Amino acid sequence: MAKIIYRPIKAALVLLLCLLSACSPTPPEFLQLSGMTMGTTYHITLRNPGEWTEQSLKAALDDRLVAFSQIASTYIPDSELSQINTMPADEWHQLTPTLFDILVLAAEVSWLSNGAFDVTVGPLVDLWGFGPDKHDGRPDEGAIKKTLEDVGFDRIELDLAEHKIKKTAPLRIDLSAIAKGYGVDAVALWLESLGSADYLVEIGGEMRVAGLSPRGDSWRIGLESPDLEVNKTTPILLGNIGVATSGDYRNYFEENGVRYSHTIDPRTGRPITHNLVSVTVLDPSCAFADAMATAFLVLGGEKTMQLAEQLAIPVYLVEKTADGFSSRYSLSFGPYLEEEN
Fold first, then answer.
1. How far apart are the C-alpha atoms of 65 and 15, rounded to whole Å?
2. Is the pLDDT of residue 255 over 70?
């Protein structure tokens, strides 16, 4: 049995734009699918794995995405996660394999990041006015302290043998900082099971690629600059890997000259104050990349680089400076930069 839980707010993410592969004419043997899921959009480009038509493959895909939302969504009242959130404290509840898998991965990222990633951070996000009921204004210290009592990934227990969960406090779990990445992985594995080895799967900006692009070479994407006045992207070349970006430069409020970010540190109950504005993470698991991108955004540039180098995680950071924006990246990210190839 292992302790678990976490989820910090999923920050506004830097757009990941497909370069050339999506802009060039798509060869006949490739299909392109798009639609809505998890409150956002999805886009998929894949080599046709058989006798599928675009319509039949999209119908099968949408059915799988609806089933996934029924497990992990907080917006569906009778979803599995919603039922867990209404469950009283100190009671064990059986989990489906999918939700159990997501929570185990979330726990891993929480421990790796020393609590910077926390799937129970939702009440703090709401308190600061970045939840569904948006409002401006800094909460008082008493409100922050009281809300912190309803947050804490270490107050969730997972029974690894029986696939059960128990909350030791009336916590609310929100998987928005990991669910899109997990959904990307699930779709990618499904496509592989159908026989497709060449694909790009993107949900809400998180993506995973494999094999060859429609151009016949490696998939190429561009990381958008946070500086909206500069039309610039940083191109990267990808192999079989997942990509996730978390950003913090568009969603905030100001009060008395102080900028309050929408990214909340679940350990302090307060918005982050450092100058890291976006993090891009590469990993074979898009779900892991998704969660780690959020954790790194909370940790800040220096701690992110230390942890990324320690764990050999490819990360690309953009930080705000007095002169605009600057970027740096971990040693393991360098080989993916197009200008270095």
1. 22
2. no
Percent with pLDDT over 70 in the chain: 86
How far is 119 from 123, CA to CA, in rounded Å?
Answer: 10
The span from the CA of 311 to the CA of 305, in Å, is 10
- What string of H, E and C letters represents the secondary structure of 264-317? EECCCCEECCCCEEEEEEEECCHHHHHHHHHHHHHHCHHHHHHHHHHHCCCEEE
Structure confidence at residue 256 (pLDDT) = 67
Backbone angles phi, psi at 47, to 5 degrees: -75, 130
- Count the neighbouring beta carbons within 10 Å of the beta carbon of residue 141: 10
Return the C-alpha torsion angle 147, 153, 157, 160, nearest 10. Answer: 160
pLDDT at 1 over 50: no
**Phi-psi sector, 92: left (phi>0), alpha (psi -120 to 50), beta:** beta
Tokens in use for 205?
A: 């900006």
Written as six digits, the tokens of 115 are: 């609590």
The span from the CA of 336 to the CA of 239, in Å, is 9
Q: Is residue 184 over pLDDT 90?
A: yes
What lies within 8 Å, CB to CB, of 250 at 6+ separation is: 12
Lowest mean pLDDT among 76-85, 186-195, 199-208, 219-228: 219-228
User: Residue 253 pLDDT > 50, yes or no?
Assistant: yes
Classify residue 312 as left (phi > 0), alpha (psi -120 to 50) or beta: left
- The torsion of the CA quartet 120, 121, 124, 125, rounded to 10 degrees, works out to -120
Residue 144 and residue 269 in contact, taking contact as beta carbons nearer than 8 Å: yes
* Most confidently predicted of 4-8, 66-70, 129-133, 225-229: 66-70
pTM, 2 dp: 0.90
Cα–Cα distance measured from residue 241 to residue 184, given in angstroms and rounded to the nearest whole number: 11
3-class SS of residue 253: strand
Contact 152, 171 (CB under 8 A): yes
At residue 201, the 3 state secondary structure works out as: strand
Predicted confidence band at 231 (pLDDT cuts at 50, 70, 90)? Answer: low
CB count within 10 Å of CB 335 equals: 12
